[in-house]
Write a structure and sequence with these properties.
single chain, alpha+beta, seven-stranded antiparallel β-sheet, 12 helices, 24 strands, flavoprotein, GMC_OxRtase_C
Length: 487
């Protein structure tokens, strides 16, 4: 029987494991974290509790020169379900042009005509995607205020046009989170060999072929072998494993004493992410605390910050709570219009600080390095300020802007953005696919230079789509499994 190891039980990995097992492959699924027993995972109102928890890898960037020298927290799921166990469950396909641009850049066969049927199948098969839920009163008013600001109401942003304000389409059923681990892998757990709580150090490569993985290191080291190795550890985890395996930029590996297996200069490069910046309001009319089974975000919008753009470049996300973060709380109740940048020009890189599991990756998003990113995010902040001042919020709720606040003029918003920008949780690009010699994987997601090794997750995305990346990660999982099975 054909054997395979899948590293990572997140969005892509759970799908790959299921599809291979259904085809008769003997699959070992490895998850560095534990099972999703934390009740906060399953209640959409408690997602904020998961950051910095045992279920979060709790990554931080290096100090970001263009974001006020801050180290940005990058929550990533260290649990069955991966980051889909921590996120806001928002389902966004993105724009058709996103995928057509992938193909034009060398990702052969990844245009919209190829990926659209995969989205259709996912949404009609094992993963519920719905907007059939009651809006919280504050969320309904936020949508009304956005329309008062001049935005169209878009009843289906996944229907071909992103522009406008919309109720979010989410993977929630009966007030509980649903992710691909729960619907793809967990139901067939008896047909998988599942290893939890063990971190993969590296891939074992012999005579140019991947033959297994090394779990742990030192006295706890263990080798597992299989005919195929699939890395689905995400845009941070997958390149880290490749680098520790000797697959990456030769000069960087040699400097750390890691024997070079394949000189692949793009591993860890092309790192980019969507960014958010908060606009926070308190209210005279009580919004109230989060309600069990109800997400604290139910609406968002897509908007073009300047003329001439082919697609929206901003995606504010709206929260029914004040998202103070590192800011000083100024009240117990309110809401947040979180300005969002979704077409970043800045590109960073991920490198190793050492060859061992305990050596943290050096993650540099180069956040806001490109002035166009600052301009777009600042424009989104200004728009969120205007929305909060519309009658549906200012009059009906007594909404008052407390951050940035009246002391920050619209002209000073660029500085606000640099001081407050945070991740939108959408890192991609570090194992870029393409047809050029420097692409990490080819268009079938096979690692160049190593037989029997694939990367199937958001790290292969060459340019981040216009919107949340969970849906693209699921689509990549389905397509990657088909490539492995010769379909």
């Amino acid at each position: 029987m054909r054997t395979a190891i899948v590293v990572g039980a997140g969005t892509s990995g759970a799908i790959v494991a299921r599809r291979l097992a259904d085809a008769g492959v003997e699959v070992t699924l490895i998850e560095a974290g534990g099972y999703d027993s934390n009740p906060a995972i399953h209640d959409p109102s408690r997602a904020g509790e998961l950051w910095h928890s045992a279920d979060d890898w709790d990554f931080f960037t290096v100090p970001q020169e263009h974001a006020a020298g801050r180290r940005l927290h990058l929550p990533r799921g260290k649990v069955t379900g991966g980051s889909h166990a921590l996120n806001a469950m928002i389902w966004v396909r993105g724009a058709a042009s996103d995928y057509d641009s992938w193909e034009r850049a060398g990702a052969t066969g990844w245009g919209w005509d190829a990926v659209e049927p995969v989205y259709d199948a996912i949404e009609n098969d094992l993963l519920p995607v719905t907007d059939d839920y009651a809006l919280s009163p504050i969320q309904a008013s936020i949508i009304d205020a956005a329309v008062e600001e001049g935005l169209p109401h878009n009843p289906d942003y996944n229907g071909g046009t992103l522009d406008g304000v919309s109720q979010q389409q989410v993977t929630i059923r009966d007030g509980r989170r649903v992710n691909t681990w729960m619907t793809y892998a967990q139901p067939i757990a008896d047909r998988l060999t599942i290893v939890t709580g063990r971190e993969v150090h590296s891939v074992i490569v012999e005579s140019g072929r991947a033959v297994g993985v090394r779990l742990g290191e030192g006295v706890d080291a263990e080798e597992l072998r299989a005919e195929e190795v699939i890395l689905s550890a995400g845009a941070i985890g997958s390149p880290v494993i490749l680098l520790r395996s000797g697959i990456g930029p030769a000069d960087e590996l040699s400097a750390l004493g890691i024997p070079v297996v394949v000189d692949s200069p793009s591993v860890g490069k092309n790192l980019h992410d969507h960014l958010l910046s908060p606009v926070i309001f308190t209210t005279e009319r009580p919004v109230g605390p989060p309600q069990t089974g109800v997400s604290v975000t139910q609406s968002h919008l897509f908007w073009r910050s300047r003329d001439g753009l082919a697609e929206p470049d901003t995606q504010p996300i709206h929260f029914s709570v004040p998202m103070w973060g590192d800011l000083e709380p100024r009240g117990d109740d309110g809401f947040t219009l979180m300005a969002g940048l979704v077409t970043p020009y800045s590109r960073g890189a991920l490198t190793l600080s050492g060859p061992d599991l305990a050596d943290p990756p050096l993650i540099d998003l180069a956040a806001l390095e490109d002035e166009r990113d600052v301009a777009a995010l600042a424009a989104s902040v200004r728009q969120c300020r205007r929305i909060g001042a519309q009658p549906a919020l200012a009059e009906q709720w007594g909404a008052m802007e407390v951050y940035p606040g009246p002391e920050v003029s619209d002209a000073d918003v660029e500085d606000w953005v640099r001081r407050t920008a945070i991740t939108y949780h959408h890192q991609v690009g570090t194992c870029r696919m393409g047809s050029d010699a420097e692409a990490v994987v080819d268009s079938t997601l096979r690692v160049r230079g190593v037989e029997g090794l694939s990367v199937i997750d958001a790290s292969v995305i060459p340019t981040v789509p216009t919107g949340n990346t969970n849906a693209p990660a699921a689509m990549i999982g389905e397509r990657g499994a088909n490539f492995l099975l010769g379909r």
